[in-house]
Every structure is written in structure tokens, then in C-alpha cells.
Design brief:
single chain, 557 residues, alpha/beta, TIM Barrel, Immunoglobulin-like, 3 domains, 17 helices, 21 strands, cation binding, alpha-amylase activity, Alpha_amylase, hydrolase
Length: 557
């Protein structure tokens, strides 16, 4: 495998709107990110990904871009962005931007011209079709709920929007559209950007078979994923995108690509794949797919383990997955995988270790190293996200009471990850001197980064130690290129594995149960590299793990 500059990257995802405000308007900004670059360097981060900062009306938190070449004034200026790239580079940190090219904002100049003349040049930039019998062209459901089609004025024409109606899908079949997108990407890369996280990239290709399908919900619509996700032929677009932009710049690319078939993974992230890495969400939706998940915490950990190992087996050294637990589109991982009464340093440090030393790229999310948790809301009016409101309406349509719908949102809403960063115990957690755009979690006086830094045993110091170990000269190549061998696969509540490379072997054992566990132990320990406790209890042929204990050891087999 050819070595790349990003193979040893430790990534950190920033949700700029909630990271740090410097001008008192209650909204995080690019100067606020610059202000904390030293903190990120101290943690060991060498790559940051910014959620969208391009100009946008913010119908979907910036994932509706109205001008790809401009920074939205709420975040700063283009000069601020250039300064961020320069200052980050001084600290050995590469900057990634969010690339949203499946759709634009409905306020984008292209779409405004398309509305003026749906049959003209810019009408062909989007997917516009005639209705059928006075209704939409078909009964696809938007990913965010409701119809995926919106009528254009009083005409019988509709435009496709897989997300909100303010996010019309681009027509990637149109070469002129693709060339516009490639030119824009190259302008950003020429500024020194390290690469992109690429949003909704698996939806570029659509299967335009417009027959209605049997409705799968009370709304009369149908989940159309087979017709607009990873559709055959998308590889032509993805290869061209890479060839025209990423490859000449040696850019790092991290694609949001759900449900890539195992046989297609090499095409996506192999040596000559479309992207450097992909986000896979197979392990993040347990709390959604199993309504009674809180009643089966051990089974949940076993299923998490199986999902993580299965995906690694699919990749099998052919590429680099992105290893993450927290993300701007999920609730906090501690709330998803740890019983609330057990949440604390030991359980959260053990959880944070489970896939940290997997092959692939590691990404942390803002607040993860500070131990931030979900902020449960008391009313639907406290939310800000259009997806949340669509979910709420859907739950009510299904027959839930308002209380039941709110309880479900307090488990599933992605807004939990978007509360302001908790820097310290000062007013508004040090995020802003003004009124925050979104309420700060009231627990900030106890849970904040400054408090974590001041403790001897803390989540912050644990992540810092893990990062240092993963990047160390002695072990970095083992963690990057070594094989992964699962162990204790039938032991309830344990996620454990060996990493082996060129005769060296490291063992990672995480007990994700509150109860102690005694396990058979057949390795010769050369050195304990890390433990989230002060001592490790290894006796002859057995290891005694405390509840939520993690041990990482250099071993001989």
C-alpha cells in the first residue's frame, strides 16, 4: 500500500455554529476556531473538518449552499478562512471543508434562474419533471419526510429535493453542472485546503423510473432509496470527480456513503478508490432500530461489537474506514451505549477506546473529549432542526401522543450534538458573551473542557494518551497498517482485538459492562501501554477486569 500523508491523521469534527463565538452574536465563527487551534494541537489533532461555512440561508444548518465561493457572514469572511488554513498549517493541522454537491440552496443563483425558465439552461442544472394526473411525478418520500417533489409555482412542473424543499437536487447527468462543480472544488484546493468531507455523495445518481411504488407509510409515500442511493452508474461520476479535482491536489476525501455493499468497498476506498475514506453509520443507529435498547445493554454492546468487526472484515486491509462514535448527526455516544446511571469517566473512556485503535482514520467530535452529554428538551419548541420537526409530525401521524413523540426525539434527535461547546464553568460555558443561538446544556458548570483538563483522571487526558500512542513512532505503523484479529468474541460485554504488524502485537481489551469480568489470558505481556485504571490485575492465565476497564498492552503471542 502506498503511504499517504493522511494515514496517521487524528481528525476532529467542528460544528462551527456551536464551537466558539468571538463577536458576541451568539453564533460560533471562524475566528473562534482559530482561537482554539492551540487546544487542538495540545490534544494531538492534526486534521479538522468544518461543517458547512459557505454562504447559506441556513434552512438545513448550512447544508443548503447559496454561494460555494463565499463564507457566510455569520461565520466570518473569506480572509478569515484563508487565515484559518494558514494558522492551522503552522501547527501541522490540515483543514477540511464540508462539500455539499448533491444539491444547492433554493436561493442559489442557478436555481433562481431555473425557476424563471424551467426549460432553459439552468432548468437543466436541476431535476425538473412534469407532474402526473395533477400530482407529483412519483411518490418518493424525502429523506426528511413528506414528498421529494415540490411544485414550481402554478405550473405542472416539479423539482426533486431528496432533503428539504429548500435543497433542490442538482442534475449530475448534465456535464455543464459537473464542470461548474469541479472548477469550484479546485479553487478551494488551490487555496491550501487539505480536502473535504463530502456530504450525501451516494445520492448523485438517480434511477429515473417514475412509476409509483406501493406506499410504505400513512403519508402515501415510499422510501425510494433503491432509486437514489448508490445507483448503478454512480461510479462514472465518482471517478470523474476524483480525476478532475482530488487526485491532482493529493487531497484527503471523507465521503458520507451509507450502505456501500461489501463487494464495492474497494472501489470506494481501495488503493485506487474514489475516496480516501468513508463514514459508515452501521454502528450508530442501534437506539433507533431497537426501541427497547435500554433494557438490553449487554446485548447492545454485543451487537455493536459484531457490527464493528463485520465492517472491518469487509474492508480487510483494502482501504481506510473512518472510525468514530460521535457526529453532528447523532446523539452523544455515551447516551446511546451506556446506561445513564453508569455514565462517567470509566464507562466513557472504555467506550471511547473500542474502535480507536482499529485500522483506518480516527475522528473525534467537538465536546467528546470534554464528556459532553445530551440536553433533553421539555418541549418541541426548544428544537431548531427541520429534520426534528418532520420526525415529530411523522410520529404524531403514526398515532403517538405529544409526550411519546417528544420522548422519542430526546433519544434520537441529532440536535443533541449541536449544543454549544462547553469550554469552562463561566456563563454560557465560555462559548459566547451574548445570547447563544441554541441553549447551552445546564450541566456545563460540572462538565466542561477546563474541568477535564484539571482532573488527574479525565476523559480529556485519556484521549490525549490514546492519540499520543496511536501517533507514536514505535506503534503508529502497527495501528495504521497492521491486521486486526478479534478476540473474546463470545464474551458478553467485551470488545477486544489484537493489532499485529511485522512481528509485533498489541492487545486492546474493553469491558463495557458495569460488573467485573474474569477472563482467560494466554499472552505474555511485554508492557502495559495504557489503562483507564491505575493498575492492571493480570494473574497466571487470567485477567480480572473491573467494570468499564480498558487495557492496552504490548504482547507476545
Amino acid at each position: 500500500m502506498q503511504k499517504k500523508w493522511w494515514h496517521n491523521a487524528i481528525g476532529y469534527q467542528i460544528y462551527p455554529k456551536s464551537f466558539q463565538d468571538t463577536n458576541g452574536d451568539g453564533i460560533g465563527d471562524i475566528p473562534g476556531i482559530i482561537e482554539h487551534l492551540d487546544d487542538l494541537e495540545e490534544l494531538g489533532i492534526n486534521m479538522i473538518w468544518l461543517c458547512p461555512v459557505n454562504k447559506s440561508p441556513m434552512a438545513d444548518h448550512g447544508y443548503d449552499i447559496s454561494d460555494y465561493d463565499e463564507i457566510d457572514p455569520m461565520f466570518g469572511t473569506l480572509d478569515d478562512m484563508k487565515r484559518l488554513i494558514k494558522e492551522a498549517d503552522k501547527r501541522g493541522i490540515r483543514v477540511l471543508m464540508d462539500l455539499v454537491v448533491n444539491h444547492t440552496s433554493s436561493e442559489h443563483e442557478w436555481f433562481q434562474k431555473a425557476l424563471e425558465d424551467p426549460d432553459g439552461r439552468y432548468g437543466k442544472y436541476y431535476i425538473i419533471r412534469e407532474g402526473k394526473d395533477g400530482k407529483e411525478p412519483n411518490n418518493w418520500r424525502s429523506i426528511f419526510g413528506g414528498s421529494a417533489w415540490e411544485r414550481i409555482g402554478d405550473t405542472d412542473k416539479y423539482y426533486l429535493h431528496l432533503f428539504t424543499k429548500w435543497q433542490p437536487d442538482l442534475n449530475w447527468e448534465n456535464k455543464e453542472v459537473r464542470e461548474e462543480i469541479y472548477a469550484m472544488i479546485n479553487r478551494w484546493l488551490d487555496m491550501g485546503l487539505g480536502g473535504f468531507r463530502i456530504d450525501a455523495i451516494s445520492h448523485l445518481k438517480k434511477d429515473f423510473t417514475y412509476e409509483n411504488l406501493p406506499a410504505d407509510g400513512v403519508d402515501g409515500y415510499v422510501n425510494g432509496f433503491p432509486y437514489f442511493r448508490n445507483v448503478k452508474g454512480i461510479e462514472t461520476f465518482l471517478n470523474e470527480l476524483k480525476k478532475e479535482t482530488f487526485l491532482p491536489h493529493d487531497a484527503f476525501t471523507l465521503a458520507e456513503a451509507d450502505d456501500v455493499a461489501p463487494e464495492d468497498l474497494e472501489d470506494f476506498i481501495g488503493e485506487d478508490g474514489y475516496f480516501s475514506s468513508i463514514f459508515d453509520f452501521c454502528h450508530t443507529r442501534y437506539h433507533v432500530n431497537h426501541p427497547k435498547w435500554k433494557d438490553r445493554p449487554v446485548e447492545m454492546i454485543n451487537d455493536l461489537r459484531d457490527a464493528l468487526f463485520q465492517k472491518q472484515e469487509y474492508v480487510n486491509g483494502r482501504g481506510f474506514l473512518c472510525n468514530f462514535l460521535d457526529n453532528h448527526d447523532t446523539s452523544r455516544s455515551a447516551e446511546r451505549f451506556i446506561p445513564r446511571e453508569d455514565i462517567g469517566y470509566y464507562s466513557m473512556s472504555a467506550l471511547g477506546s473500542v474502535n480507536f485503535f482499529f485500522p483506518g482514520i480516527v475522528f473525534l467530535y467537538q465536546g467528546q473529549a470534554a464528556g459532553m452529554l445530551d440536553y433533553r428538551k421539555k418541549s418541541i419548541d426548544e428544537f431548531r432542526d427541520p429534520t426534528t420537526f418532520n420526525m415529530y409530525r411523522g410520529y404524531l401521524q403514526e398515532g403517538m401522543t405529544e409526550e411519546q413523540a417528544l420522548e422519542k426525539l430526546n433519544v434520537e434527535s441529532r440536535e443533541h450534538a449541536r449544543t454549544p461547546m462547553q469550554w469552562n464553568a463561566q456563563e454560557n460555558a465560555g462559548f459566547t458573551d451574548g445570547t447563544p443561538w441554541f441553549a447551552v446544556n445546564p450541566n456545563y458548570k460540572e462538565i466542561n473542557l477546563e474541568a477535564e483538563k484539571g482532573k488527574e483522571e479525565s476523559l480529556y487526558h485519556w484521549y490525549r494518551k490514546m492519540i499520543a500512542l496511536r501517533k507514536s513512532d514505535e506503534y503508529s505503523e502497527l495501528f495504521i497498517y497492521g491486521s486486526l484479529i478479534p478476540v473474546y468474541e463470545k464474551t458478553d460485554g467485551v470488545i477486544a482485538y489484537e493489532r499485529e504488524y511485522q512481528g509485533r502485537c498489541v492487545l486492546v481489551i474493553c469491558n463495557l459492562k458495569a460488573a467485573p469480568q474474569e477472563l482467560p489470558f494466554g499472552w505474555n505481556v511485554k508492557k502495559i501501554l495504557l489503562s483507564n485504571h491505575k493498575d492492571v490485575n493480570i494473574e497466571k492465565e487470567k485477567i480480572c477486569l473491573r467494570g468499564y476497564e480498558t487495557v492496552i498492552a504490548d504482547i507476545e503471542k
